[in-house]
Specification:
The chain is mainly alpha-helical. It has one domain. The chain has 2 helices and no strands. The protein is elongated and about 45 Å long.
């Protein structure tokens, strides 16, 4: 049986990193979306999908 996720069991440096990444991922995603609208390339779309996936994982507490 899987144990419930508790972020307080993580080391302090990892908790700080997750906290700052949660705050930074939204502006990066918005910037990447605007960049796709102006200059759409394959790499930009891949990066945007990675940012959206990272945002989902951080906000659902999977990472």
């Amino acid at each position: 049986m899987r144990r419930r996720y508790n972020p307080y069991l993580l080391p302090p440096w990892l908790r700080k990193t997750r906290f700052y990444c949660k705050g930074i991922i939204i502006p990066f995603t918005c910037f990447q979306f605007v960049r796709i609208i102006i200059f759409p390339t394959t790499w930009d779309i891949i990066i945007l999908l990675l940012f959206i996936g990272l945002w989902y994982l951080l906000h659902s507490d999977i990472i």
